């Protein structure tokens, strides 16, 4: 039996109305997603904080900034940028390295970003801003570049090796340690004016990150969760326990204690002679590629894939 014409018309009208409502809902959902400062496709690769704001650099060409310890964020799109490293300087300004051969800098509010081309190292991999606000960048071909004038000029040290400098820390205005592929170790005692290679770390150690507590004591993380400690300024290194049993991709100091973030959502910190996992709520089992201390706060910032960037407390009950 055929449906009467009037019923057909009503049914079609209802279908059209429902379709329009669904389409409107979809548009509202899309608009709401676009308005969010942190996107689901963001991968937070770097973090830095200066006591006023927290800045996260992403793989998707944007930086996100929080002025309230991670409660809210604002977004600034920089373009085709992959911000793989960030550092805060003593004056509160920020400097970052872009995998696409650039250096970016911003003011103490994390705004006013501008870039300059970086000739050497061709691929920047690690950056630090020292006590004199000088920039130090390590990267491909075992090259370290230093700028004392915010990138207007550079002093380049080429160690003549086909190796990447992947970890760099300036302990103070004069002393710094750089680590690279195949156990490469280099040190400076004149603020980065010259770098001298030292004894290599055995086993062709590949470093992810390094952090020094003072001129003598420092830590380096590497493949397969390896953690090394030096107590003589990088001349010798010894393996210590990593109870987190996960690679730690970033090491940093918070309240004078080494922390690390890494695989499986792990946050770890030095307790005695071992890095111990630090429990925190709502752990996402993904790699954490970025971490930073929040000065003056009992908290750190962590970042990873899927739009993950958050602030967590370091006070564990």
UniProtKB/TrEMBL annotation:
GO terms for molecular function: hydrolase activity. It comes from Aromatoleum bremense. Keywords: Hydrolase, Photosynthesis, Photosystem II, Signal. Residues 151-247 form the Photosynthesis system II assembly factor Ycf48/Hcf136-like domain. Residues 1-24 form the signal peptide. This is Glycosyl hydrolase. PROSITE patterns: PROKAR_LIPOPROTEIN (PS51257). The keyword Signal applies.
